[in-house]
Amino acid sequence: MNLADFNTVEKLLTHAGFSFKKSLGQNFIVDPTVCPEMAAAALDENTGALEIGPGIGVLTAELARVAKKVVSIELDERLKPILKKTLAEFDNCEVVFGDAMKLDLKALIAEKFSDCKRVVVCANLPYYITSPIIMGLLEAKLPLHSIVVMVQKEAGERLCARVGSRESGAVTVAANYYAESEILFDVGRDSFMPPPKVDSVVIRLKIRENPPVKVNSEADFFKLVKACFAQRRKTLSNTVSNSLGIEKEKIGAALQKLGLSPTVRSEQLTMEELAGLCNELF
Ligand code: SAM
């Protein structure tokens, strides 16, 4: 069965009486080039693939063709009979029904992938939870090699921006702290059924063995980063002072020590400068 063919998918879904739930971010891929390209970028035959949101299994099938093992987490139980049919030919994949935001992924990875050399997350993410899922995966320090995911174009550009550039934000700094990120390729809105209102990109986050900067406390670092980007139109000094209640004089002195202007904006700081500021302030 060609799961990326529009007519095949339409027939399959009509036959099952399936209707799309917008609230679950259900836009299914109907473009034959996208999923093989994602699988090739993410996996080899020794890899275990953790997928979030298999839908009707179009990416799952491509992952199963390449990976040692695939485990897919799907929230919508209405997809159970469809997935049973579409994935019947693969004996190396399993679908777990549950909420990817709530499941204990560390335990799941330990249980399911002990025979795999490395584990990657590969998914076409539901867009309403892109950031919490990616940040949750990174912050939980799961034993992952990389994360190859399709996300809304704007979110992907922000995640993969250079820290210290206009496009960067708190999520850029967090992603960069845990991983090396890159945009792999674009996917237009017409590649989906139903087509969403925005275009997408596939990105890869390769998990770092060690963070690129040394901070005295990760909790303080992320607290500071969040405060830095809370009010983008204000200077760093103003937004950090407003958000964290630190006196402006103290922030000014820390900026001066780092050789930075008192009117610098958060988006102008590099990872090293943000880490330096954190270590000065806390
Ligand atoms: N992988 C399929 C594809 O590329 O065609 C479907 C991708 S669709 C963008 C997102 C999928 O995630 C849907 O199947 C949706 O039901 C599922 N989903 C939404 N929220 C979820 C959650 N919290 N946990 C697991 N799956 C979820």
Write a brief structural summary:
The protein is of the alpha/beta class and 282 residues long. 39% of the residues lie in helices and 18% in strands.
Which keywords apply here?
alpha/beta; Rossmann fold; Helicase, Ruva Protein, domain 3; seven-stranded mixed sheet; 9 strands
Task: Give the helices and strands, then pairings.
Blueprint: H1 6-16, E1 28-29, H2 34-42, E2 47-52, H3 58-66, E3 69-74, H4 80-86, E4 93-97, H5 105-112, E5 118-124, H6 130-139, E6 146-152, H7 153-159, H8 170-178, E7 179-187, E8 192-193, E9 200-207, H9 218-228, H10 236-244, H11 248-257, H12 271-281
Parallel strand pairs: 2-3, 2-5, 3-4, 5-6
Antiparallel strand pairs: 1-8, 6-9, 7-9
Helix pairs in contact: 2-3, 6-8, 9-10, 9-12
Bound molecules: S-adenosylmethionine.
Strand order of the largest sheet: 4-3-2-5-6-9-7
**What is the CATH topology assignment of the largest domain?**
Rossmann fold
Mean pLDDT: 96
Alpha-beta classification: alpha/beta
| Small-molecule binders | S-adenosylmethionine
Envelope shape? elongated
What is the distance, rounded to the nearest whole angstrom, between the alpha carbons of the first and last residues? 58 Å
Approximate strand percentage: 15-25%
Description:
The chain has helices at 6-16, 34-42, 58-66, 80-86, 105-112, 130-139, 153-159, 170-178, 218-228, 236-244, 248-257, 271-281; strands at residues 28-29, 47-52, 69-74, 93-97, 118-124, 146-152, 179-187, 192-193, 200-207. It is elongated and about 65 Å long. It starts with 5 loop residues before the first helix and ends with a helix. The mean pLDDT is 96. The chain has two domains: 6-207, Vaccinia Virus protein VP39 (Rossmann fold), CATH 3.40.50.150; 218-281, Helicase, Ruva Protein, domain 3. With 282 residues, the protein is an alpha/beta fold. It binds S-adenosylmethionine. Residues 24-29, 52-55, 58-59, 73-76, 99-101, 124, 126, 129 line the site of S-adenosylmethionine (SAM). S-adenosylmethionine binds at residues 24-29, 52-55, 58-59, 73-76, 99-101, 124, 126, 129.
